[in-house]
Amino acid sequence: MFRSVLICVALFLSVVACKREQRKFTSPPSNYKSYDVTMSDIHPGSAGLPRPVQNPSEERAFDLNEGKRLYTQYNCSGCHFNGGGGIGPPLMDEVWIYGQNSENIYSTIVEGRPNGMPSFRQKIPDNQVQQIVGYVRSMSGQLQKDVSPSRNDTMNARRSEQRTKREAAQQSTQP
């Protein structure tokens, strides 16, 4: 008796659950106005640009360190997973959908991209966007090595010298 009631309840719940999950998609009404997305003149893989715009932040290690800090602060790693890719595309490889030049990355941050990348226009100051652009380019090895950002002390096998505890020196018996 109890077993048959339990089976009936399970059958009823499975039927109700199926009806609940049905979704009906309809086309938009005829008076619906779609809004145009403002896009820049920069297109994916456009090698025909006259001359790339030089980002001044790419020549200063301090700016790249600030870009690294801002990358974490604005939660870019939430989608790009420290450059390895995840929800957002990876930033450490050689494949760049919207172009690897500074102006392409700048436009992506400011304008956003369809299907995921939000626009940060009026949310991040221009100099900070340039610092983030410099750091993003340094992640894929596109910049000179003498202006690379510093390493993360949290990702090292041992603590850095600046973070170790101060200990008193001990006298040795043999020179």
At a glance:
By secondary structure, the protein is an all-alpha fold. It contains five helices and no strands.
Keywords:
175 residues
Beta fraction: under 5%
Which residue ranges are poorly predicted, with pLDDT under 50 across at least 5 consecutive positions?
A: none
Helicity range of the residues?
25-40%
Rounded Rg: 26 Å
Structural class: mainly alpha
Main β-sheet description:
none
Instruction: Let me know the average pLDDT.
Output: 76
The shape is flat
Which series of helices and strands comes N to C? Answer: HHHHH
Count all strands and give the number.
Answer: 0
Distance between the termini: 90 Å
Describe the structure in your own words.
- The chain has 5 helices and no strands.
- With 175 residues, it is mainly alpha-helical.
- The longest helix is centred in the first third of the chain and has 19 residues.
- It starts with a helix and ends in a 36-residue tail after the last helix.
Outline the fold blueprint.
Layout: H1 2-20, H2 61-73, H3 77-80, H4 102-111, H5 126-139
